[in-house]
Design a protein that fits this description.
The protein is α/β, with parallel strands linked by helices and 363 residues long. The protein has helices at 17-23, 25-33, 48-51, 70-85, 97-105, 138-146, 170-182, 207-218, 235-249, 264-272, 283-288, 304-307, 341-344, 348-359; strands at 8-12, 38-44, 59-63, 89-92, 110-114, 125-127, 190-195, 224-229, 256-257, 276-280, 295-299, 317-321. It folds into two domains: 8-146, Glycogen Phosphorylase B (Rossmann fold), CATH 3.40.50.2000; 170-359, 3-Layer(aba) Sandwich (Rossmann fold). Helix content is 36%, strand content 16%. The strands form two sheets. It has a six-stranded parallel beta sheet with strand order 3-2-1-4-5-6, sandwiched between helices.
């Protein structure tokens, strides 16, 4: 039997956490298609925990997110480092100015990226990318780049075989177990995690709506505890939501748990221990998709068809959206109606009903 030639592959995906999550089926597919391939992954620090423990990635290269005068020097050092590695294939899963330049200077013979105006010349193989926001999942869009590899066997993405992946971090698991115990949450409590923030106002559901959902769900069972989480910029909003839910619950307000900050690996561990995750179309929802925890996703300007959890269909993933709006989906630069109606008209009662359906599931 002829031995498959060695292949040294670099994947590049900069910036956002959710976008990195969508690429995690690709290393597994590469190993399956090209046994013995060595797969490296270049990522920025904020999203590095997503791929840090992936068994199909041999090396994670963390690129500095430098600004100003430091950026050119850092990028030059990175370019020299990558050229010394002699990659056979570099796949730019991002398509931005920085990632396309890094792809070019890598010196790889096969440099694969999207057909983007002004940057396509940096690639040796280009893949068309539609300008409009299509109802096509991001995992499938990324997979198009694999099909440009010489010798690609025609593999297609499958939710059951190729789910998004972020393996558990044992240290994070131990840390979360201790913090739950310190917070008075018992192993038999029914834990729900509600992530109430988003990176921009286009994906941020109104605070009163979150307060109503959290208070209602927490009030339904003595065993139920709800942790309200947020990004660093939304701590005050999370505190207001938690305080409002506690006020509505009165003597049962202790079911809303103050938990403080946690890192990405701890977030994944916390979601995996929960019976339900509720949140908008942001990084934490996509982290939730790497677990077997049911999800209720709130989609404003974005489409579930593009970013709903990519995993086994047997695990509940409820997608709430307001259909029939001519301005949806949008590029999230300006709200044409001015009132963010794709989110403000999403009813708490519908989210509560979706949560009830998801909570009925047992693995």
């Amino acid at each position: 039997m002829q031995r498959a030639p060695f292949m040294n592959v670099l994947l590049i995906r900069l910036r956002l956490i959710g976008d990195v999550v969508f690429t995690t089926p690709i290393p597994k597919a590469l190993k399956r298609a090209f046994p013995g391939a060595r797969v490296s992954y270049l990522v920025e620090e904020a999203a590095a925990p997503v791929v840090a423990n992936n068994p199909n990635i041999d090396e994670v290269i963390v690129v500095p997110h430098a600004r100003g005068m430091h950026r050119p020097l850092d990028d030059l050092k990175l370019a020299l480092r990558l050229r010394r590695r002699r990659f056979d294939i570099v796949i730019d899963l991002h398509g931005g100015p920085r990632s396309s330049w890094i792809t070019l200077v890598s010196g790889a013979r096969q440099r694969i990226g999207y057909e983007v105006k002004g940057r396509a010349w940096m690639y040796s193989r280009r893949v068309p990318r539609a300008r409009e926001l299509r109802a096509r999942h991001s995992v499938v869009n990324q997979w198009d780049l694999l099909e440009a590899i010489e010798g690609w066997p025609g593999d297609t993405p499958d939710r059951e075989r190729d789910p998004v992946d972020m393996p558990a971090d044992p240290r994070a698991d131990r840390a979360i177990a201790q913090r739950l115990e310190d917070a008075g949450i018992r192993p038999d409590d029914e834990l729900i995690l509600a992530h109430v923030s988003a990176g921009n106002p286009f994906r941020r559901w109104p605070e009163p709506a979150f307060t109503e959902v959290i208070a209602t769900l927490a009030g339904e069972s003595q065993r139920r505890k709800i942790i309200v989480s947020s990004g660093p910029s939304d701590h005050e909003a999370a505190r207001r939501i938690a305080a409002g839910a506690r006020h509505a619950l009165g003597k049962d307000g202790h079911r809303i748990v103050e938990f403080g900050e946690f890192n990405l690996s701890e977030l994944r561990s916390l979601i995996a221990r929960s019976r339900l995750f509720i949140g908008g179309d942001t990084g934490p929802l996509h982290i939730a998709a790497t677990t077997a925890t049911p999800v209720v996703g709130l989609y404003g300007p974005t489409l579930p068809a593009r970013s709903a959890p990519w995993r086994s269909r047997s695990i509940p993933a409820e997608a709430l959206e307001v259909t029939g709006l001519p301005c949806r989906p949008c590029e999230q630069r300006i709200c044409e109606p001015g009132d963010f109606r794709c989110l403000t008209t999403l009813r708490p009662a519908d989210v509560i009903s979706a949560a009830h359906r998801a909570l009925q599931w047992t693995a």
